[in-house]
């Protein structure tokens, strides 16, 4: 399939059209950003590592019966995906307290949440991706009640699959965000799943193995991503 025009440039990926209107090419770049783009750096190998990591996770989810937009890797930094009409609402599942949840509610980092929590955030960089509820999403036309119900169902299915997967690598899946879109009227998982969009801790030491290493200036960001992959058996 032929990669054609640049359609969109995001914080860490570029999106290209193809000669098939149903498919796009995503290019994973080495760019890394945090705090709504206020902190930006380039980290060598990051694009390739995240692309490979995402392909592995999407394959595991597909095997578990969760439909995704992933089709196949093209190059170490490029992937072919289905073209989705994205729903501008992020779904966040939290198994342990961390990040904004601790700041908002004053709870201790690392508190296990039983059952896991589910939150919605509006995809809007200018507003800082504010937290919203289902009523907001429906009233403003960002998603329908049926779509939100399906997104929540899929989010918890993803959680069950990936909690077990990371546990096998002696890691805790602390929290993660997902984005969904429509493909021929079916809601399926889009965007990516990588340490950029989730929190992962070593089960014993609670060492952070995710993008918090960049946010908090802990260093060895890509090395931590590679460690996660190696624990899962990913070949970079």
TrEMBL record:
GO terms for CC?
cytosol
Tell me the gene name: purC
For molecular function, the Gene Ontology terms on record are: ATP binding; phosphoribosylaminoimidazolesuccinocarboxamide synthase activity
Its keywords, alphabetically, are: ATP-binding, Ligase, Nucleotide-binding, Purine biosynthesis
The EC number on file is 6.3.2.6
What range(s) does the SAICAR synthetase/ADE2 N-terminal domain occupy?
A: 7-231
Q: Which InterPro entries match?
A: SAICAR_synt/ADE2_N (IPR028923), SAICAR_synt_PurC (IPR033934), SAICAR_synth (IPR001636), SAICAR_synthetase (IPR050089), SAICAR_synthetase_CS (IPR018236)
Member of which family?
Belongs to the SAICAR synthetase family.
A biological process from GO = cobalamin biosynthetic process
Domain of life (superkingdom): Bacteria
Listed pathway(s):
Purine metabolism; IMP biosynthesis via de novo pathway; 5-amino-1-(5-phospho-D-ribosyl)imidazole-4-carboxamide from 5-amino-1-(5-phospho-D-ribosyl)imidazole-4-carboxylate: step 1/2
Which named protein is this? Phosphoribosylaminoimidazole-succinocarboxamide synthase
Organism lineage string? Bacteria, Pseudomonadati, Pseudomonadota, Gammaproteobacteria, Moraxellales
Q: Which organism is it from?
A: Agitococcus lubricus
Q: Which SUPFAM superfamilies match?
A: SAICAR synthase-like
Which top-level enzyme class is recorded in the Swiss-Prot or TrEMBL entry? Answer: ligase
The UniProt record lists the keyword Nucleotidyltransferase: no
């Amino acid at each position: 399939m032929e990669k054609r025009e640049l359609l969109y440039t995001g914080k860490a990926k570029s999106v290209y059209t193809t000669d098939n209107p149903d498919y796009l090419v995503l290019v994973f770049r080495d760019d890394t950003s945090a705090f709504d783009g206020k902190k930006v750096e380039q980290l060598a190998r990051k694009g390739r590592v995240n692309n490979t990591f995402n392909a592995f996770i999407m394959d595991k989810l597909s095997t578990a019966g969760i439909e995704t937009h992933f089709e196949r890797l093209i190059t170490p930094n490029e992937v072919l995906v289905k073209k989705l009409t994205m729903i501008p609402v992020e779904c966040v599942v939290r198994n342990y307290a961390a990040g904004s949840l601790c700041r908002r509610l004053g709870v201790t980092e690392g508190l296990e949440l039983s059952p896991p929590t589910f939150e919605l955030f509006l995809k809007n960089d200018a507003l800082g991706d504010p937290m919203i509820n289902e009523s907001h999403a429906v009233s403003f036309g960002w998603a329908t009640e049926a779509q939100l119900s399906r997104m929540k169902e899929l989010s918890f299915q993803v959680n069950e699959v990936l909690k077990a997967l990371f546990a096998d690598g002696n890691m805790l899946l602390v929290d993660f965000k997902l984005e969904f879109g429509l493909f021929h009227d079916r809601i399926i998982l889009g965007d990516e799943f990588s340490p950029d969009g989730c929190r992962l801790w070593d089960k014993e030491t609670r060492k952070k193995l995710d993008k918090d290493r960049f946010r908090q200036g802990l260093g060895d960001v890509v090395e931590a991503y590679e460690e996660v992959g190696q624990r899962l058996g990913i070949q970079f």
